[in-house]
Every structure is written in structure tokens, then in C-alpha cells.
Specification:
- The chain has 465 residues and is an alpha+beta fold.
- The protein folds into two domains: 226 residues, no CATH class; 223 residues, Aminoglycoside phosphotransferase (APH), C-terminal lobe (Aminoglycoside 3'-phosphotransferase, Chain: A, domain 2, Alpha-Beta Complex), CATH 3.90.1200.
- It has an eight-stranded mixed beta sheet, with helices on one face. Strands 2, 3, 4, 5, 6 and 12 form a six-stranded antiparallel beta sheet that branches.
- Helix 5 packs parallel to helix 10, helix 9 packs antiparallel against helix 10 and helix 11 runs antiparallel to helix 12.
Length: 465
């Protein structure tokens, strides 16, 4: 391993003030910006680190900035939220070449970058190379710390390219060898997107690409995980794309669903070995069921179409509480937390891998790191099969049901227990997921609302299929 590079840097005064008017327009338009629909009223600088000097042809800054917005329900002029913290990599050039036009933030008129053009530097080759070199050498630059696994070789000369498909984060692929996922909205603490793959790698689980390196910011005595470098699964297809492709051809997907069930169980088994598990008794399960009932009532208040199903759906959650009151217990452990077809990769050899262990980004980090019943992941995947079936141009009767059954069978082959043998727990978690989907689609994609409502109708029956 190369000797680590340590460099003390200071950010130029006035940097944020000069970027403020540009960021107010640019930031809300990014796909990964979480506060859409509310104006940005100001910014506060969390940290700024100069990676390439501003007086060079290309200046490069790593910026952590907090965006302040009014509360969603506040009156005009009312209180503001503390603001989400975003990670930005800002480049500065005299002028942008045409290839970087999509990266434009704006032209700076004052401050240390006056007269230059600011842009999202992840689109640019040289800034992306700077990040990989820092990871390769284990650099320390200001408050930024670049770590790597000692047994992972990171070669030089890997050509970077920005992936354009992601929504909540940004990823750069290096020569089809590595992929660097940069978290856009960040919080202090241990991020499961690094924690869980590291634990699985040390447990010897091959179903999750092992981290080769990671970026951390050390600020005010706390660490903020900024990004994770992992092997790139060359030629892989994500499960969503593959499922839609097979549906378009009228092909059965059961064999793949069964293999995916086995992969999920291998990951769950390894996580249970690597990290502590807990037993959920009456008190914990009552709290879990109450939370599901509360989410159901909130969703029904917001979406009138859900209201006729509320009494029947509530029984899915009260039945879980009743079992717990009778003395039934369950085991909870660390899980993926947001499992669906799009979080799974199938290599050209046919091997499935699971990726993106960040959990649901909208939930607090502490909540995402709590042990959960493994069935939470299983319910998410079962709902994903349903979404795929409804997304096909031509309906394929029985496709989702076949996938659901095959997935549970594959899971049982590895885990030793079939999720369908605990129908109360499975129905409760799948119902909770469908309720969440109803609320999400009503707010963001009304044309998709029929998909979770179809599941709601099925789950409202006494014995859901």
C-alpha cells in the first residue's frame, strides 16, 4: 500500500456566499434533492475542503452544505427545519467544454471563484480521478479521510464515468473495475451502506460486493460516511430490468426468483452470524403493530381511496399483536431494509448479488440500524414482483404469484424456514409495505396508484394469497 498523503487545507473565505445564489436554483433541480416542493431560503457551510487549488486551470472543492427550508406545514415566514446536509463536489473552470454542459451550476460573479464557471465535478474525468487516487493512497486532506481495505488493490489509470440512472445518490464507475457510490444527503454516524457490506465481507459472504475503500469526514468529533468504493459487477443486469425483459417476452421468471430467494437467505444468515440479534416479545411486537396501525390511519387520512379497506387491513396488524400476547416471540436482526428487484444484480454467469444497504433514506439513521424481522425484506421483494407484473405492457396471468412462491421456496432452501409458514407476520409486513406504497404513489405518481391498491384489495381478504 502506498504511503498515505496528508495535506492541511483551508477553504477560501466567502466561498459559500459566492455560490449561494447559484445553489438556490441548481440544488432543488437535482434528482437526489430531498426537499422538493419547498423553497431553499439559505445555506450554512458544514465544511469545505480544497482538493485542487482554485488558481489552477481546474479548481476543485469538496463541500458539505446544509440547505434551509420552511417546514412543510409552516405558515409563510414561520419556522424552518434545521436543513438536510448535502455532499457536493464543485469544480471551477474559466469555461465549460460542451461535454460538461449538463454539469453546469452557474457563473460566479463574486468571491474567490469570481469570473469562473462552477459545475458538478462528478461529470468530469480529472476530479473523479482525484477521488480514486485519494482512496488508493489512503489520503488525509483537511477533515476528509480516505480509507481502503489493505488486501484490496486499487490500480491507477482506471477511466471514470458517471452513472446517470441513480436518484438518491451518485455513482462513478472506474474502468469496469470499481464503482464509487457518493452519498448525497448525509448524516453523522455509522452508515449501514458501509457497515453491513463490511460485516458481510468479513463473514465471507460472497453475495455482496466487498468494500475496497470508503470516504469519511471527521467533523466536531463525529464521523460522516461520504462514499463507498466496491467492485463493479461487469455486465450485470439489475433485477427490475431483467424481470421486465422476461415479462415482455412472455417468459417465466420463477427460476430467477427462486435463486434470488436463496441469495437473500444467504445474506440474512450471514448478517445474523456477524451482528447481534434480539428477541421480540409482547412489548416490542405491540409497539411494532401499533406503528403499522398508525401508518395505516395516516395514509387513509391522506388517500380517501384507501379508507374502505382500513378495518380489514387493521386486522393484519392486530392479529400480530394477538399472537405476541399469547407468548409468541420472533427474532430480529440486521436486514437490508429496502429490498426490491432494483437492489439486486444478476451477473452474466447467473449469480445474484444484493447492493445498496443504505435502507430507506427518508428514515432516521438510528431507525435504519435497528434489528428488524427478516420478513421485512421478504415482504419488500414480494411487493416488487407485483410491481413488475403490473408494469408489463401485456399482462401475464399468474406471473407475480409464481415468482412469489418460487422466491419463498428458494429462501426456505437456505434459511431452513419458509416465510409462508408464518402467515400472520408475512401478511402484516406486506400490508404495511402496500400502505406505504399507496401513500407514496398518491403523492408522487398518481398513475401508479392502482398497483398498491390492487395489493390492498388482496390483503384485505381473510386469507390473502
Amino acid at each position: 500500500m502506498s504511503e498515505a498523503v496528508t495535506r492541511t487545507v483551508t477553504s477560501p473565505p466567502g466561498l459559500l456566499a459566492s455560490l449561494d445564489p447559484l445553489l438556490r436554483d441548481w440544488l432543488p433541480r437535482q434528482r437526489w434533492f430531498a426537499g422538493k416542493g419547498r423553497p431553499v431560503t439559505g445555506f450554512s457551510l458544514v465544511a469545505a475542503t480544497e482538493l485542487l487549488p482554485a488558481d489552477a486551470r481546474l479548481g476543485l472543492y469538496h463541500v458539505l452544505v446544509r440547505a434551509h427550508q420552511p417546514l412543510a406545514v409552516a405558515a409563510p415566514g414561520g419556522p424552518e427545519e434545521p436543513g438536510d446536509c448535502y455532499q457536493l463536489l464543485i469544480g471551477a473552470r474559466e469555461a465549460l467544454p460542451p461535454r460538461l454542459a449538463p454539469a453546469l451550476i452557474g457563473h460566479v460573479t463574486e468571491g474567490p471563484l469570481a469570473g469562473r464557471t462552477a459545475y458538478d465535478a462528478l461529470y468530469d474525468t480529472r476530479p473523479a480521478e482525484v477521488l480514486l487516487e485519494a482512496l488508493r493512497t489512503g489520503a488525509r486532506i483537511g477533515g476528509l479521510r480516505f480509507e481502503r481495505e489493505p488486501d484490496q488493490e486499487i490500480r491507477t489509470g482506471l477511466m471514470p464515468r458517471l452513472m446517470t440512472a441513480e436518484q438518491s445518490n451518485s455513482s462513478v464507475v472506474y474502468g469496469d473495475t470499481f464503482i464509487l457510490k457518493l452519498l448525497r444527503r448525509i448524516v453523522p454516524g455509522i452508515n449501514p451502506d458501509l457497515e453491513l457490506p463490511l460485516a458481510l465481507a468479513r463473514e465471507g459472504c460472497p453475495r455482496v460486493p466487498a468494500p475496497a475503500g470508503w470516504m469519511v469526514a471527521d467533523l466536531a468529533g463525529r464521523s460522516w460516511v461520504l462514499g463507498v468504493l466496491q467492485p463493479y459487477v461487469q455486465g450485470a443486469t439489475d433485477g427490475w430490468e431483467l424481470a421486465l425483459r422476461e415479462l415482455a417476452k412472455g417468459e417465466d421468471f420463477a427460476a430467477e426468483a427462486r435463486a434470488l430467494g436463496r441469495a437473500t437467505a444467504e445474506v440474512h444468515t450471514a448478517l445474523a452470524r456477524a451482528l447481534p440479534t434480539v428477541t421480540l416479545g409482547h412489548g416490542q411486537m405491540r409497539q411494532l403493530a401499533d406503528g403499522m396501525i398508525e401508518r395505516l390511519e395516516e395514509a387513509a387520512h391522506a388517500v380517501p381511496l384507501l379508507r374502505p379497506y382500513v378495518p380489514a387491513l387493521r386486522t393484519a396488524f392486530t392479529a400480530l399483536g394477538d399472537l405476541a400476547a399469547e407468548g409468541r416471540t420472533w427474532t430480529a436482526q440486521r436486514v437490508h431494509g429496502d429490498l426490491h428487484l432494483g437492489q439486486c444484480l444478476r451477473s452474466p454467469s447467473g449469480r445474484w448479488s444484493l447492493i445498496d444497504f443504505e435502507g430507506e433514506p427518508a428514515k432516521p439513521l438510528a431507525e435504519r440500524r435497528l434489528p428488524q424481522p427478516p420478513v421485512r425484506d421478504i415482504a419488500g421483494m414480494l411487493r416488487s414482483f407485483d410491481y413488475a407484473a403490473h408494469s408489463a405492457e401485456a399482462a401475464l396471468p399468474g406471473w407475480a404469484e409464481s415468482c412469489r412462491a418460487a422466491y419463498c421456496t428458494g429462501y426456505a432452501e437456505v434459511a431452513g424456514s419458509d416465510p409462508r409458514t408464518d402467515p400472520v407476520m408475512l401478511r402484516a409486513h406486506e400490508t404495511d409495505k402496500a400502505v406505504y406504497e399507496v401513500l407514496y404513489e398518491a403523492r408522487h405518481r398518481p398513475d401508479w396508484l392502482a398497483v398498491p391498491l390492487s395489493a390492498v384489495r388482496r390483503l384485505s381478504t381473510p386469507e390473502p394469497v
